[in-house]
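Appendix B: complex inputs.
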Amino acid sequence: MKFKKAVIVISVVTICWFLTVRTAKCSGRRISIGNKLPEFSASDVSGNLFDYKHGSGKVFLAVFLSSKQENSTKAAADIKEIVSKLAAQAKRLSVVVAVNDPNNQTIFRSEPNEPNPNEPGVVVHVVADTEYKLWGKFGIIATPTVIISDTNDTVLWVQAGHGYDFNPMVHARLNQALGIAQEIDPNEAGRVRTVKNATMDARAIRHMQMAKMLQEKGRIESAIEQMRKARELDPNSPKLALELGKLLSATGRGKEALEVIEGIPAISRQDKAELLTASGSAKRQLGELDKAEELLIQASKLDTKSGRIFFELGKVYQAKGEVEKAMLTYYRALTLVFGCELNISELK
Amino acid sequence: MLNKFGNKLVVVLICLLVSYGLAVEKPTTPQQTCVTGECHADYGKKAFVHAPVGLGDCKACHKPLKPEEHTYEYARQGRDLCEYCHLEQTAKKVVHEPLKTGDCMQCHDPHSSDNKFRLPEKTVASLCAQCHKVTEGFEFLHGPTAIGECTVCHKSHSSDHKSLLVAEQSELCFACHVVTQDELKKYEFVHEPAKNDCIGCHNPHGASNSKMVKDFAPYLCYTCHKDIQNTAENSMYQHSVVSDLDGCLKCHTPHASSVKFILKSEPITICMTCHDKPQEITKDEILPAFTEQIKDKKFLHGPVKDNDCSGCHVTHGSKYFKLLAKEYPPIFYAPFSEKNYELCFGCHPKDLVWTPETNNLTDFRNGSTNLHFLHVNKERRGRTCRACHQTHASDIPKHIRETVPYGMWELPVGFTKTTTGGNCISGCHLPKDYDREKAADNSAPPQAAKPTQQTSGT
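Resulting structure:
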């Protein structure tokens, strides 16, 4: 029994000692990520008391600024811009800006002071921390310093200075805290990304676009030349092969068109319809009318609104000598092109 | 001899008589059409024929002046001649120069041609090149220029956009450069010309370089960034890379970046392309490799930790040594002046050295005595930041130095951190402690170190 009591006492003492030492070791000036943000009360520059208490369920953004520092001025401008874009999410955010010079509040005014109930903005509390009380409590060593906590009052992010990545980092961390979907991993928000406009893919698309412009101007041979260049740059692109095939088919080079488009893996319904149309047109040019008809009918089922498909199908029927069918199909094509029912008697 | 000459004369006379007999006389009265089997027949035989010519309606453009002499004049004068039918070609705001003067025939054969649009040249490009020598001396040509398709970008007759462009310049480039356009939308920091003025930097026809920029950096960049040019060329301390050919592109990307200053990479990565090895500043001064200064160090200064050398250094040029952004004393002692510490005060509060007593402002205090104030704020021999702190990295907390150069001596700082304060057994003063919770009493005279063994000497 005595032994048991001794073990319990020793255990309790050990745990207490461990906790004390751990706490002491963690007691650096800088506030740590993952810890609870300390509660505090402070008067804002309008004389109103601002209370930060745990359990509000709001995201908290604390910004420490020095009104005479250039970096603080830039940070203030960035924060204003980022926060102003939050719009509907703003009501879930609480912002406190602590400045150490009460005589110079121009760095960050409490805007907007009168939130529109229909479109609530962020209410910013500007606190004059002239005696560095908050500074000491939060363990700040430099300005600007930004601290963001999540809705559970846990510190999510602390950043001092106004570095090259200030804007994207604050943006990403606020989004993370507020649960706003974003494309960038917040841990990667500071990674520099630049435009990669010189990739093979980009170059191929440039040639394709030029081909389209040339085609519109009736410069079909030049357009084909450009599409061939595009395809050379990216021979595995189904899109480029299809576009080249369509151009070749449109200029009566059915055999070449088929060589280009055969075996293209069409993913989307639209691509599949276009592929079948180009193949059907090419087959017609090669005199394989039954196959052409089959392909074009398949295409028309995938894309019921394409005048082009019915025009091509009309040509097939015309070539087969099925005049009535050809006329009806052309009529259908015209209806789709002009977007209204035509008077068939006028056509006749 | 005479006989031979006589024979020749006879042959010539016969030829003249035959040709006169076969020749068609010019009509001396108005005709229905001029394009007949006998007259002006070639006008209708080419691939592309002007519609009135094809219809034999010469009066659309010509009217008899003296029919008996077979002379004619234009049906209308100047630009009215063609505009009468082709009014839409000159209806836009910007009109091609020849059209203004009605000189349409500079580019078109009025009757017929073997070339499309009845051009006098086989291609549009060769026609345009007669006046517009836009590719001379260029090694690299823009795609449409290279294939001679000027009309991909320009209208031939008139346009609502300057330079007869087919669309607004800000949109035209993106008609082909769609990937760039899509990418630009995703970036917050876009170079101003990349938004709507590609030709601010690029020559749309070609250039002597593959990117078709109008000039190389930094000269091209300086055309707008005069302030940077001034800094780069006139600063007391210059950064050599800025003036290098294409130097700007070592740090900046020309179109857009996810970070400000459209940097091409993280600042420290950029800086380390050179400063990972010692750099010769002058013959007598070698800048040590930065990587060696921070290698395996436990504590990095904030900007270094954040990969941002620009926290303290400026890149284009500075009036302060080591390209520092602001004033920072290079010496151990300095009379206190706020101006001396502008660099540090860029982030750290000035009150740190103005406030004798504090319980919040700094951890470097004995009770409430601010030891930063005590060390720095002195009229004559204030200790500068460098007396105690290492600016890039240190193995000691708070970026404290192990030693500091003091003349020829590497003066030890001897700092040890405790949970509530610390102590210094330094070369500056006698050992001293500080404690934030219970102020240390450093007033007691230190005990003289006991000699370990008296040795006699001569």
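The two ends of chain A are 113 Å apart (CA to CA).
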